[in-house]
Amino acid sequence: MKLxxxxxxxxxxxxxxxxxxxxxxxxxxxxxxxxHVRIVNGFPAAQGQFPYQVFLRGFVTGGAIACGGxxxxxxxxxxxxxxxxxxxxxxxxxxxxxxxxxxxxxTSNTFMMHPAYNPNNLNNDIGLIRLNxxxxxxxxxxxVNLPSADRTGETFLNVIATVSGFGRTSDTGAVSPTxxxxxxxxxxxxxxxxxxxSAVIVDSTVCGTGADAANQSTCQGDSGGPLTIQEGGASxxxxxxxxxxxxxxxxxxxxxxxxxxxxxxxxxxxxxx
Length: 273
Known about the structure:
Layout: E1 5-7, H1 25-29, E2 37-38, E3 43-44, E4 53-60, E5 63-71, E6 76-79, H2 81-84, E7 89-94, E8 104-108, E9 110-113, E10 127-130, E11 160-165, E12 169-170, E13 180-187, H3 189-196, E14 205-210, E15 226-231, E16 234-245, E17 255-259, H4 264-271
Antiparallel strand pairs: 1-16, 2-12, 3-13, 4-5, 4-7, 5-6, 6-10, 7-8, 9-10, 11-13, 11-15, 13-14, 14-17, 15-16, 16-17
């Protein structure tokens, strides 16, 4: 039986044995008390290690959600569409491994989801946030590189990639106050579709499993964050954190990401990057 998919909703994921459908960010907020949310079995980040990583605080009716994102220029942040859904404004924490102590705290009232985003199967789960004021780059604040649009045919199969974020580090409590990371081995879409089905795993999806252990993964609070590889001595973002299995983050099932290669034209059209 194919597993149902659970969205990497910004704060929570139900621990129910089976979900009747994917859990959107709004639904998942209601299940926070039952969450199992973290970068699983990862490592603490050092200051300046991921200068492109940001922490997003999105304000929604009745509270706030937490997500990740990446600076792709001094005024644009790349994130997941489901991190934007229902949000009225953002605070963007930059230049730190401690979310409560930003080097720069940005704000945004301008953001967009991909027009083809489908919350039911999480296809095209990608979005953009424009800072109200462009940020000045520093040692701890830098933009990540994006692959060119002519690389859509690359699968990155078996490449070791790194994902980072401020997701929870235990089964209960708040999101992590500090940044963490873990290595992920990219697997084939065919292998991933065997778990989640072909409606979820499409050409613009990339999947991975723990590089050192099966129970290494991303989880809620890491939504929208960057999946990167090293190329030419720099970080290249090949994915955006999107989903995990409804069986749980430690179940050993693949985690899913949006392939940035497939959305370069859209990103350029919106940002000029």
